[in-house]
Amino acid sequence: PKAAIDGDDQFDAEAVAAGLDPARLTVTFGLGPELFAKTGLEAARPAKLEALPEFDGDRLQDAWCGGDLLLQICGDDLQVVSNAFLELRKRAVGFGTLGWVQQGFSSPPADGGTPRNLMGFKDGSLNPEPGSADFDTRVWASDSEPDWFAGGTYLVFRKIRMKLPAWSMASAEEQNLTLGRERDSGAPLSGGGEFDHPDFTAVGGDGLPAVPADSHLALTHEAAMFRRGFNYDYGFLTQGDVSSDAAAHEHAPGTADHGHDEHPYDAGLLFASFQADPGVFIETQEKMAASDRLMEFIVAEGSAIFAIPPGAAEGGFVADGLFRT
Ligand code: HEM
After folding, report:
1. Contact between 296 and 261 (Cβ < 8 Å)
2. Contact partners, residue 102, CB within 8 Å, separation at least 6
3. Which atom of ligand 1 is nearest to the CA of 119?
4. Which of the chain's termini has less CB crowding within 10 Å, N or C?
C-alpha cells in the first residue's frame, strides 16, 4: 500500500544487503515501444523502436512478452541484485505493475575465457570488442535518431527454451555440425582457433562444406549486434505454470515433433542483443527460423524490444534528455 511506502517506518530493503560488497551492481533501463504514446512523448520515440513481429517457430507466452519499462539488474551477488530489485520495485508502487521477471546467470571460466551456454558451447566468441570502432557502428544508435537518443541502443530480449533432453541425446558430431563449431575449443569447423573467422569454402573429408550452410555459424556470421545473454534454469515446472508446454496438444502422438516438447524442464538462454538497428536482429532471426539446424533444439517463449537510453551523466538522470525535447 502507498501509505506504507511514504511512511517513516517503511521496510528498509537496504538491510537485505547490509555488509555486502556492491558486487559490480548495474541497472540498465529500457523503454518499450508503447511507452512514448502513453506518456505523450510520441514525437521523441526512437526511429526504429517498433514491437517485434512473431517469428516462425516462436511459441510466445503473453506473460513473457513486451513491456513499457525494462529494468535489467546485474551483479555478481544475487543477494545484492535482490536488494536492488526490492528497492526499485518499492519506488514503482502506484504507477507501475510488474509484467515479467527472468533470472539468469553466466559463469566465466577461471582463465577469463568465454562463458558457455547450457548447450555446453562457448557463447560470445565473435562479439565485437567494446570500445572498438566496430562495436561503435554495430551497437550505438545512428545519427538518424532523435538527439536525446545519441549514445543509446536497442535491446532485443528473447526467452529461448532449450530442448535439453533432445540435445543431450545428440552425438558430439551432430552438436558440432548444428553450431558449425567444435564444442570444446569453440573453433569453427573449418579450423583455426575460437576467435578465427570461419572459412566457408573449406571442405571436410567427406567432400561436404566443413561449416554446413545451415549451421548457426553460417547463418549468423557477422550480424551487426552485441550479444550479452544469460543462461537460465528454472528446473522442473509442474502444472499450471505459464510455461507448461502446449505442444502436447498441438502435435498428435507419433508425429515428428511429438515428444520433444513435452518435458516440463524449463532451461535455456535469456538472449539479449544490443544493436544500432533492430532490423539486423529481425533479419538474422528470420534466417534462423528458415533454415538453422539449431531450431530443432530451441523454442522462443518470450520476446520484447526496448530502447536503451544513453548512460546518465554525473548529476543527471536516466533519459533526462527525453524530457528536454
Ligand atoms: C538458444 C539459442 C542460441 C544459442 C544456443 C546460440 C549459440 C551460439 C553460439 C554457440 C555461437 C558461437 C560463439 C559466438 O560467436 O558467440 C553463436 C553465435 C552467434 N549467434 Fe547465437 N545462439 C542462440 C540464439 C541466437 C539468436 C536468436 C540470434 C539472433 C537472431 C543469434 C545470433 C548470433 C550471432 C550474430 C552470432 C555470432 C556469429 C558470428 O559472427 O560468427 N543467436 N550463437
Report:
1. no
2. 64, 159, 232, 270, 302
3. 5
4. N
Residue type, 39: T
Beta bridge partners of 71: 29
Domain extents in the chain: 1-31+68-99, 47-65+116-312
Q: pLDDT by residue (tens digit) across 101-147?
A: 999 999 999 999 999 999 999 999 999 999 999 999 999 998 899 99
Residue nearest to ligand 1 atom 8, measured at CA: 123
Residue pLDDT, tens place only, 159-177: 999 999 899 999 999 999 9
Please answer whether residues 243 and 237 qualify as being in contact, where contact means their C-beta atoms are separated by less than 8 angstroms: yes
Q: How far is the CA of 284 from the centre of ligand 1 (A)?
A: 10
288 lines ligand 1 (CB under 6 A): yes
Q: Which of 13-17, 63-67, 225-229 has the lowest mean pLDDT?
A: 13-17
Q: Is the CB of 123 under 6 A from ligand 1?
A: yes
Cβ-contact 189, 211 below 8 angstroms: yes
CB of 292 within 6 A of ligand 1: the answer is no
